[in-house]
Amino acid sequence: MNTFYKILVISIFVFTDRVYPHEKSHETHHPTVIKESQDPSKLEQINTLYSQSVKSIFENKCLNCHGGLTNFPWYYRLPLAKQLINDDVREAKKHLDMSQGFPFEGHGTPLDDLKAIEKATKEKSMPPFRYWIMHQNSRLSEKEQEEILNWVIQSLEILQIQ
User: How many CB atoms lie within 10 A of CB 145?
Assistant: First the structure.
């Protein structure tokens, strides 16, 4: 690998914003809490819908950071890159851990997660720039965005929240 590309990779990791764009509106982060008003059977319905409609999208596009399926790139072996990648994965899972299906862990309630996913999908803020610049296939297609937004809308209807 020539020197230019090494400098480019290091620059992307060091000089890009480490804050996830969608998280700026979330001041507090606490474990998933299912409110008493949320019927567990509704969450099971949403999880079933998740499995049928968007789980494969999340597995292919999101679980590398937001789940237990991290597939480390070749540059993970570089000391600075390894530390930054580990920090990013840890931070991603802190905000939204999709390892166990819906309801996810991270933002708080399932409603918080749905709203965060809707916002990130509409704003195209995930994955962060420095991730997708190195992983060109990680961006959502228009069809995938539409499928995720449809799942969010249907899920909110199941929760009877608009």
Answer: 15
